[in-house]
Design brief:
Rna Polymerase Sigma Factor, Chain: A, 74% helix, Arc Repressor Mutant, subunit A, globular, mainly alpha
């Protein structure tokens, strides 16, 4: 039974967990290794998972696996975030290039945020966790999570304003 649960969990959430881990470490090989470690740990502790909270629990397991690797390998570059979701829904090449430039600027700006603010933005805006789920994943109170998210958005708006003035 435990193996069936893990297979289902893997099929349902592997892509999301992979994207989340890749956004943290920006290395495909390392992401694959951490993903494997995540599902190994999930298998070992499957009884701790509540059926209605599988995805947040898996993200928490993935984050802890990532932190363990980060501690072992201090050379990791965490200053840029990348996402695999399709970015282009435009028709012309010029529009596609402009959209890619906007995404590159956003990724760079998010990468320059303090680690906790970056994590709040990624969990809430890109992985679409609720406030409560994201706060639980980060092990902070709901109000503290909202403050982190507010400050991250404020910093991104200020940076955009400065960039617009420079042009």
């Amino acid at each position: 039974m435990k193996q069936d649960d893990l297979d289902w969990m893997y099929q349902q959430h592997m892509k999301d967990v992979y994207r989340y881990l890749y956004s943290l470490c920006r290395d495909h090989h390392m992401t694959e290794d951490i993903l494997q470690e995540t599902f190994y740990r999930a298998y070992l502790h499957l009884e701790n998972c509540k059926d209605d909270k599988v995805k947040p629990w898996l993200f928490r397991v993935a984050y802890h696996a990532f932190i363990d690797v980060k501690r072992k390998n201090k050379r990791m570059d965490l200053h840029e975030i990348s996402y695999f979701d399709s970015l282009f829904h435009t028709e012309t090449l010029e529009q596609q290039v402009m959209e890619q430039e906007r995404w590159d600027e956003l990724k760079l700006a998010i990468g320059e945020l303090p680690e906790r603010q970056k994590q709040a933005i990624v969990l809430y805006n890109f992985h679409q966790f609720s406030y409560q789920e994201a706060a639980a994943l980060m092990k902070v109170g709901l109000s503290h999570f909202k403050i982190l998210l507010f400050r991250a958005r404020q910093t991104l708006r200020q940076r955009k304003g400065r960039d617009d003035q420079d042009e």
